[in-house]
Design goal:
Number of domains: 1
Distance between the termini: 15 Å
Strand order of the largest sheet: 2-1-3-4-5-6
CATH architecture: 3-Layer(aba) Sandwich
Helix content: 40-55%
Order of helices and strands: EHEHEHEHHHEHEHH
CATH superfamily: Alpha/Beta hydrolase fold, catalytic domain
CATH topology: Rossmann fold
Radius of gyration: 16 Å
Number of strands: 6
């Protein structure tokens, strides 16, 4: 049985991948590290490597994708195949960093309220805004990670390097998956990554925002199954 290491995004826990873990249980044993305990991408990558077997399939969602790139810098020989879901290889823009610092400052003033309803249109497709089977897990995961975890994750993302130079060196079978209406890490970013990675396949999930594993779980599981068995 293969080991599939799945890395969640900002304010996400293992629950993000609940459907994929169940759907792929016949193919792979899943490990989902709790990244929010660390405040650098490097520390997240090292904790993941420490928890994983010698060889494994690696999948990262959003922030988890940034950690995937760091794992490939540190131990490329341990990664059998790679899935990049709703993520990007680019570093933070100055505007994004300023926004993150603002979130950290607000949280320090005791103003952390998890994922605000006003932010939901930025992360899920408009058709899903009324679907509590999607929205409720997002809110509950954020509450579990909490204010301190949120600040550590934001700090880690500010400090991440530019991973675009790494893409041409990726030699393992790679799935690049994105929701067509993803605003946070848009389709063009996925297309750029797929173009630079030699052994890549691009999967675009229709009528889907940023939270593809929750919004379109069956389609994401199917894409991961193809990737794991190709």
């Amino acid at each position: 049985m293969a080991t599939l290491v799945l890395l969640p995004g900002l304010l996400n826990t293992r629950r993000l991948f609940e459907r994929q873990i169940a759907d792929l249980a016949d193919l792979a044993d899943a490990i989902v590290p709790e990244l929010w305990h660390h405040e650098s991408i490097g520390a997240m990558a090292q904790a993941t490597l420490d928890a994983a077997p010698e060889r494994f399939a690696l999948g990262g969602f959003s922030m988890g994708g940034y950690v995937c790139f760091e794992i490939l810098r540190r131990a490329p020989q341990r990664v059998e195949r790679l899935a990049l879901m709703d993520t990007q290889a680019t570093p933070d823009t100055a505007e994004a960093t300023a926004r993150r610092r603002g979130f950290i400052a607000q949280t320090g003033l005791g103003r952390f309220h998890g994922v605000q309803p006003s932010l939901l249109p930025q992360i899920v497709h408009r058709d899903h805004l009324g679907d509590q089977s999607i929205i409720q897990p997002i809110l509950e995961m954020a509450a579990e990670v909490g204010a301190d975890g949120f600040c550590r994750e934001q700090t880690a993302m500010i400090g991440r390097p530019d991973s675009r130079p790494l893409l041409v060196d990726i030699k393992v079978p790679t799935l690049v998956l994105v929701g067509r209406q993803d605003i946070a890490t848009p389709l063009v970013r996925a297309e750029e990554m797929a173009a630079d990675i030699g052994h890549s396949q691009l999967a675009v999930i229709e009528k889907c925002g940023h939270m593809a594993p929750l919004e379109k779980p069956a389609e994401v599981s199917a894409a991961l199954r193809r990737w794991l068995t190709q």
